[in-house]
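Our example copied in:
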Amino acid sequence: MNFSVSDMHGVIPALVTCFDKNEAFDSVRMRSVVRFLLEQRVDGFYVAGSTGEAFTMTPEERKQVTETVIDEAAGRVPVIIHVGAIGTRISEDLARHAKAAGADAVSSVPPFYWHFSEDAIVDYYRDLAAAAELPLIVYNIALAGNMGFSTISRLAKVEGVAGIKFTSPAHHEILRIRQEIGENFKIFSGVDEMALSGLCYGANGIIGSFYNLIPDIYRELFAAHAAGDMQTALACQKLANRIISLSLEYDYIPLIKRMMSWMGVDAGYSRRPFKRYSEDMLGVIRRRFSELKSESPQVCFLKAL
């Protein structure tokens, strides 16, 4: 552990996980992605979450991804490891491994699939925080069942729970969390299309999928917001949303990886049932994105088209 929770802010990519054409974890590609994003001056990494296809991997594979990213990051930025699973014992094991590997914090979705009670969810995070012995970032996302404010408020009182990754468009809740839970509770806005809104409502940082692809846009957005330059920040959000909206017409996680290869950073492929695009289809998609190039040719992704 190299960083405290107070060091965690800014633009934090929810890292893609690199697989080869046979769907095996590709550590060489993974290291290349980490180096690229460090060169882009991102502020941290969120590893093996939804974008990282965590639930397509075995626990041992997730540990391998954790070790690879932490080793390549080499203490230059904070690394948060997502350890969520339906079973508490699996999450506890992943959390202990994350600490041993040198992670700075862990994070987890709530237990899902079965409809767990609020008490069961609070107990899950309490057990996980105790096992991790690291700051724990709660992960609120619709895919796992959004938690209400009452649950979040209870979790904020659990020893070891340091903040929340809030991946929901209900940004009035971010404002309420900041006002009622307080300044010491870290909030990371997790909806890429609403990064500016999240920051305006009190988020300390932003964690998202598209920060793998267009980190430069979001770095400018974050800096502009911090400087009070809302005109520039809004322009950045609008451009990012054009890119995101077009991407969401497709299976965006595998597409992000192939689009990164257009910039010379081969992030590999995704595991089934995520789609694999043919070269012909990628050519069609690339031409569609090329139409945005004139809007901001200095953006690394658009410049590469």
